[in-house]
Amino acid sequence: MAQWSEGYVTEIEYIADCFPDLAPAHLNLALLHRGIAFPETEAGFNYLELGFGQGVTLTMLAAMQPQGRFYGNDFNPSHVLGARALADSAALDNLELFEDSFAELLARDLPPMDYIVLHGIYSWVSTENRAHILALIRKLLKTGGVVYISYNAQPGWAPKAPMQRAMLEFAARHGAETLAERFGAAREFLKSLEQAGAAYFVHNPVAQEQLAGLWDLNDAYLVHEFASENWVALHHADVVRDMAAAKLGFAGSTTLANNFPLFSIPPDAAALYQSAKDPAMREMIRDFAVNTQFRRDIFVRGARHLEPADLDAGYRQLRLALRRPLADCAFDAHLPVGAVTLDRAACEPILAELAKGPRTVEMLAALPALSGLHPSVCVDTINLLLCLRYLVAVQPTEPTVAMRERADAINRAMLARAVAGRYVAALASPVVGSGIEVERGDVLFLAAMQSEVPLPEFAWAALQRAGVSLTRDGKALDGDKENLQELERRAEEFKKSRLPLYRMLGIA
Ligand SMILES: C[S@@+](CC[C@H](N)C(=O)[O-])C[C@H]1O[C@@H](n2cnc3c(N)ncnc32)[C@H](O)[C@@H]1O
């Protein structure tokens, strides 16, 4: 570990992921669902991300929300360089990226913030750093301001704790040169313990599943997840206490379904959940009922409950778009409580209308096909579709030419990264106002559309440079002919099903 890293990983850069849940519009939507007032963003706002990693989320937000001022820190200079390069590609003038530790950031003179977000930080840093983070929130968050904080949670993450410790100890004694090799070997070591019939795995079937899941992680994720010396899984009640010391109260979750007990609390535990008076106790019951592994909490400094008229206006003005192609919006779906079958009479007209473009809830509620339904059914249906991530909250107005140009600039930079073989799973949407997920296989097709080369040939050339060939039905494809045929098939599917959605979201 480098001296300045305070036990955190610096040898490998973190993955360049984008988290649309960190967008002000998504945070505000979660608060609307909970009936809690949220910051007005139209006239301007300040937003701080602590530990921004590769900065993809923050940079895309800054590009798509010119009325906001965005700030962020990460103490890893490689991360800061990567984020600055992305910001420079769109000449952003509303974003400041600091190569600061949390302690150093505390000493800076920054304006009061409407939003402070930290994703994948709080359960990986030392107690001192958690205290610095709380001091930053206490110092910088406005009254009425919003904090998003995610963390590895108890009890679902608990079986991983002994595994993390064993990996840390094993890796510390292993002679390989790189951290990725040492933790790769540590993962194999755990596997050999399991195969030797270690009672820990026999008595903890969830640990067996979690162990198997380690092979889904790439090197960067594996190392950033497990190599921190300060790794801990937190109880929600502890985070509530920490936040209370900074004068914040729990206000909801960016996992939208969790804001609706009906969608997220298993029926058998519902009475127990409802009987608990203290919200922290309710969340504890939830975490045990569904064995929560990771939490995405929202806290506010002063919760003001919306009056019925404000709540109604908030919903009516809410503007929405499809988040996935219409054909992928299945009527048999899954929520944290289990399988649900959607009511076609209510869902079909809403989804069909949104396939034409973004609409407000007011416009959707006025659809003739919904006139026979009670108005609350329309809102309930929309909320359900949002919880299923079929829909996304978008900007209140159509994007300006300048916003589209900024999105195009960032997306050209992201697509160039994809063509160079780097991980890209999101692009900037001026319609949504943030980054939004795209199918990983589609990024090369989207890049090809900016060239004269046909999509399959372009994608195959990039894949060959990266030393990758495709598989179909689990079978590896061999040579140019088979790979190109498969890419032709995938390109047709892309054009038919996902390209119209990307166009609607301003990505393509
Ligand atoms: C797991 S990564 C998450 C990054 C980003 N939030 C994301 O989700 O993509 C944790 C990040 O915190 C940064 N970090 C860890 N300790 C820090 C500290 N004391 N001060 C500033 N940044 C820190 C790391 O460099 C890393 O980029």
From TrEMBL:
Keyword Methyltransferase included in the entry's annotation: yes
Keywords: Methyltransferase, Transferase
Domain of life (superkingdom): Bacteria
Biological processes, Gene Ontology terms: methylation
Domain Methyltransferase regulatory: 218-301
Record domain Methyltransferase: where: 43-153
GO molecular function, one term: methyltransferase activity
Protein name: Methyltransferase regulatory domain-containing protein
Source organism of this protein record: Candidatus Proximibacter danicus
